[in-house]
């Protein structure tokens, strides 16, 4: 069971920002920007590269709600970044699909 599954089940506490039947969003415990949240599907998908066509509605919901969470966090006026890491070389640290919402300062490009 992943760290995120334990958060969904309330076995590990988190500072929750948003939740619905498919997703949970919470503040990252090791923020990489002044505002750093994670939005996580409750369905345990390992990573984006392993998603299937029947996950299409969930993935669309994830992106739309990521924008909603960014708005709740006050990031819309100045912008924000969404990041989905995939695999070890992509920076994935938890094998459960999730989207980082970063903002609160100018973010450089390229990111790595």
Radius of gyration: 13 Å
Major beta sheet summary: 5 strands, antiparallel
CATH superfamily: HIT-like
Beta-strand segment tally: 5
Question: How many separate domains?
Answer: 1
Order of helices and strands: HEEEHEE
Question: Taking all residues together, what is the mean pLDDT?
Answer: 96
The first-level CATH class is given as Alpha Beta
The name of the CATH architecture is 2-Layer Sandwich
- What class do helices, strands and sheet pairing give? alpha+beta
Which blocks of ≥5 consecutive residues have pLDDT under 50? Answer: none
Summed up, the helix count is: 2
The percentage of residues in β strands lies in: 15-25%
Helix content: 10-25%
Fold-level CATH name: HIT family, subunit A
As laid out across the biggest beta sheet, the strand order is 1-2-3-5-4
Large-scale geometry: globular
Written overview of the protein:
The protein is globular and about 35 Å long. It has a five-stranded antiparallel β-sheet, covered by helices on one side. It has 112 residues and is an alpha+beta fold. The relative contact order is 0.22. It has two helices and five strands. 21% of the residues lie in helices and 22% in strands. It has one domain: HIT-like (HIT family, subunit A).
Topology:
Elements: H1 3-8, E1 16-19, E2 23-27, E3 35-41, H2 56-72, E4 80-83, E5 99-103
Give a short overview.
This protein is α+β, with helices and mostly antiparallel strands. It has helices spanning 3-8, 56-72; strands at residues 16-19, 23-27, 35-41, 80-83, 99-103. It has one domain (3-103): HIT family, subunit A, CATH 3.30.428.
